[in-house]
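Extended Data, panel c. Modelled sequence:
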Amino acid sequence: MTIASQAPAELHGASAASTTTAPGSAPRRRRKSLTENRWGYAYVAPFFLVFAAFSLYPFMYTAWVSLHRTSLSNIDGGTWVGLDNYRNLLQSEFFWNALRNTFTIGILATVPQLCMAIGLAHLLNYKLRGRTFFRTVMLMPYATSIAAATLVFSQLFGRDYGLINTMLEAVGLERIDWQSGTVSSQVAIAVIVTWRWTGYNALIYLAAMQAIPGELYEAAEIDGANKWKQFLHVTVPSLRPTILFTVVVSTIGAVQLFGEPLLFGATNSTSGGSSGQYQTLGLLMYQQGWSNFHIGQAATTAWMMFMIILLIVGINAAISRLRNRAER
């Protein structure tokens, strides 16, 4: 055999040897990879420990408590009742009243809030003088304490000396007892929520608007579209993922609404008014657990709130998916 004929064979053998994995090399590589990434695992470990201790464990323990009839003073000594707490809750008129109030206040607060946020973001997207100042001012309500904002608004909506009733009386209208009426109290609470969160959502929309390519507006302008048509046919379609995000977040906040209705009443009662006219699910849960000491029923209400949030988020996701398919 010549040298020329030996070369391909040697190259073939070398390539075969290089592609053959030596026994035990794979475990060594995995151990080496774990060793090299140990600092990364060390950095993320505290988050998972805190999440497991303060989120995952309470979440699962609440589910376990919801299956027992127990009191706040003796949580571990409850009696197993299975799904009885859920059946009793669904048969309770207080639950359906709180659910109806939560839904109504959520609609009254979310729809105007997001519409105004898109409009304000559209205005701030122009090259205005002092844009940084206006953006900071819009975020100030979000930074304000819920207690402070609600107490101020409860004074504004006061029946006898409130500024809003004084203005209504000045234009010839009658005073409104904002706290006693069902519709009036829910409108007042929705105004507080809208005032607090409009600027926050406007900044989210503004960040999304600034990511829209300018070529889209230039093409629309060439086609003869004015500013209003550009807003409808360029800005709003480009903001659909952001709008879906804000709708989901606002829905979660509406279902968990607690501080505003609690502090809106004169006595800060968890009953949500004299006839429960603005009692939300959050107030009902607090009343069951910390006023009536039925901690099992309170845990059941908390889980019903969680399932309602999952249902609404799932409906929003399904609608968005169907719309995307229709556009294709």
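The chain has two domains: 27-57, 85-327. This feature is highlighted in the accompanying rendering.
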